[in-house]
From TrEMBL:
Keywords: Cytoplasm, DNA-binding, Repeat, Transcription, Transcription regulation
UniProt-recorded name of the protein: Transcriptional regulator MraZ
Regions annotated as coiled coil: none
Organism: Terrabacter aerolatus
Lineage top rank: taxon: Bacteria
NCBIfam families listed in its UniProt record: division/cell wall cluster transcriptional repressor MraZ (TIGR00242)
């Protein structure tokens, strides 16, 4: 499970160093793709295959399902981290997420998310109150 918040920097070639605690899990390959709210999702290869298999279950007669799959899969790039645990985020995905040098990587359970740090901080500030207000609605009995 991916947890926590990390603040690596992109290097001048658009490469990201994976947080050390996730390098072994991603060593065999990963997929980076568009996420929601202009973030990027990073999946270990086996988890991405599971997610893609789930998507294939959606009816192709559904325009919403087709649109989602097109956006999600057309932006996907399979990468293999080097020995230092870094991989290149393709330019089109860096542009989509507005990434420059300062990025925030968050653990989101089955995936990592990569955000421009300023955008992440703004998002977190805007959603913290609703997080507190909706805990019982989202996960009944949690607290």
């Amino acid at each position: 499970m991916f947890l926590g918040t990390h603040t690596p920097r992109l290097d001048e070639k658009g490469r990201l160093f994976l947080p050390a605690k996730y390098r072994e899990r991603m060593a065999g390959g990963l997929v980076v793709t568009r996420g929601q709210e202009r973030s990027l999702f990073i999946y270990p290869m086996d988890e991405f295959v599971r997610v893609a298999d789930q998507m294939r279950q959606a009816p192709t007669t559904s325009k919403v399902a087709r649109d989602y799959m097109r956006v999600f899969l057309s932006g996907a790039s399979d990468e293999i981290p080097d020995k230092q645990g870094r991989f290149t985020i393709p330019a089109n995905l860096r542009q989509y997420a507005g990434l420059d040098r300062e990025v925030t990587v968050i653990g989101a359970g089955s995936r990592l998310e990569v955000w421009d740090s300023a955008v992440w901080n703004s998002y977190l500030e805007q959603t913290e109150q609703s997080f507190a207000d909706t805990a019982e609605e989202v996960i009944p009995g949690l607290f």
